[in-house]
Amino acid sequence: MTEPFENGWIKPIQRQNLSELAYTNLRRALMEGRMKPGDDLPLRPISKSFGISATPMREALLRLVTERALDIDGKGRISVPHLTRATLVEIRTVRGFLEGNAARQAAQSAAPEAVDALERLHDDLARAQDAGDFERAIGLNTAFHLKLCEIAGLPVSYEVVSNLWVRCGPLLSHLYDGGLPPNWDPHPHVRIVTAIRAGDPDAAYDALNMDIDGGGAGLLAHVRD
C-alpha cells in the first residue's frame, strides 16, 4: 500500500534546521502546482513522508498559513486554499505589472548569457510538453517567470512575485486539464526572449502580459466566485 504523499516532490530531510527545509520544500511544491486547491495536509502522514518529526513540520505548515499560502480551519485541519475569482484576477494584475516591468528591465540590461539561460528553460518546457510530462512543464513555467525577475536584477520584485506564485501555484495543476494550451505562433515565452534580445522593452512587456492573460485564461474556471 502506498503511503500518503509518496510522490516526486517529497524527499526525506536529513539535515539541521528541519523546519526551514520542510518549509522550502512545501513552498516550492505550491509554486510549481504539485498540490491542488483543496488538498489536505495532515500533519503526521506528511511528517512521516518527509522523514521528520511532527514539531518542525507543524512549524513549517503554520508559517505557510501565516503567509496565507495554506488555510487552517477551526479544528486545526490544514489545506491548500481555493482562490476566489477576485483574488486570482488581482494576483494576475499585480504579476502583469511586476513581471512586465522585469521584462522591460531585462530588455535594457540583461546579459546575453542570462537570456540564454532563460531561453533554455523555455526549451526544456517545450520538450516536457511534447513528452506529455505536464508536471515538469508546470514547474519549468514557474522557473521561467522567476528567472525573468532574476536576470532583470530586481530582487525585491523577485521576492514579491515568488510570493504571488506560492498563492496561485496550486491552480497551475489545472493548466493542462484540456490538453496542450493554444498553439501560439510563436509562444509568448519565445516572444519575451526575442524582445529581450532585441532590446525592445515595450515588446517584452506586452509579450509577458499576453502570456499571463492568454495562458492562464482557463484557470478562471477553477476558482470560486
From TrEMBL:
Keyword DNA-binding belongs to the record: yes
InterPro entries to which the protein is assigned, alphabetical: GntR_C (IPR011711), TF_FadR/GntR_C (IPR008920), Tscrpt_reg_HTH_GntR (IPR000524), WH-like_DNA-bd_sf (IPR036388), WH_DNA-bd_sf (IPR036390)
Domain HTH gntR-type: 16-82
Pfam families: FCD (PF07729), GntR (PF00392)
Stretch forming the signal peptide: none
Keywords assigned by UniProt, alphabetized: DNA-binding, Transcription, Transcription regulation
PANTHER family from the UniProt entry: HTH-TYPE TRANSCRIPTIONAL REGULATOR MCBR, TRANSCRIPTIONAL REGULATOR, GNTR FAMILY
Protein name: GntR family transcriptional regulator
Organism: Paracoccus nototheniae
